[in-house]
Amino acid sequence: MDASSLNPTGRFTGLADTYARHRPDYPDEAIAFILRHCGLAPGSRVIDVGSGTGISSRPFAAQGMSVIGIEPNPDMRRAAEAESTLSALTPSYRNGRAESTGLPDAHADLVLAAQAFHWFETDAALAEFHRVLKRGGWVALLWNERDETDPFTVEYGTAFRIAREAAGVEQSRKLSGDGLLASPLFQHGQRVEFGHAQALDEEGLLGRAFSASYAPREPEAKEQFTALLRACFARYQQGSEVMLRYRTSVTVAQRKDS
Fold it and tell me: For residue range 118-169, what is the model confidence (pLDDT) as tens digits?
């Protein structure tokens, strides 16, 4: 399945609050790897494409970098802006698409896409990333993928099988980073993984599940999905919490200069 054909902008409308409250962040080790590997420092320019509610933008701004979030969905963009403060380290957000950011040539040291690249048109997005990057700049793609070695996390993932689009979107997500590694526009590609986890109470687990754009929305399927999740929580909870475990994938590659 090509996830870029599934209305990637409109499908997140109405999910911004749930997304902002219940989606996991990214492990410190993953952020540190990107900073070190891509030679970033305070003052570096970072473009976070598909920035959503700003979960991936804020850690880079906190390191003193100039961060612009590109997000086409107005609900998600407003949620990101609601987290803004008067601090100089606050990211700025603007409307745009991965394939057409509206930014000038050779503008950024890093183009970042976190939990987003599978929604883009691969070739067009990579051509745009190449255009907006400075010479020697980098692309970094991040995904929090479920850790299938953990019994609770496996059962949580199994519950999604009642969702019609789940298998296709998840498969597209797992393969999407290969497009960067194979692109003739980039070089020195590499993929690494880091462990991550998210502690959730029962309502937090439901919020995390329904933040997925492919979670069931029809009343009967939604009720069935909710029942499966509550039963899963009851089996695995300890101290009224469960631990959802991830493998955070980071794919990086450097702009190839002609």
Answer: 999 999 999 999 999 999 999 999 999 999 999 999 999 999 877 776 666 6
Report all structural domains of the chain as residue ranges with CATH numbers, in order of start. Answer: 3-144+168-196+248-255 (3.40.50.150)
Q: Sort 197 into a burial class: Cβ within 10 Å, 0-12 / 13-18 / 19+.
A: middle
Q: Report the C-alpha gap between 85 and 216 in whole angstroms.
A: 35
Angle, CA 144 vertex, CA 141 and CA 149 arms, to 5°: 130
Task: Report the distance separating Cα 136 and Cα 204, nearest Å.
Answer: 41
Measured CA to CA, the distance from residue 253 to residue 140 in angstroms comes to: 7
Residues 6+ away with beta carbon under 8 Å from 160: 166, 170, 209, 212, 214, 215, 225
pLDDT digits (tens, 9 = 90+) for 50-80: 999 999 999 999 999 999 999 999 999 999 9
- Cβ neighbours of 188 (radius 10 Å): 11
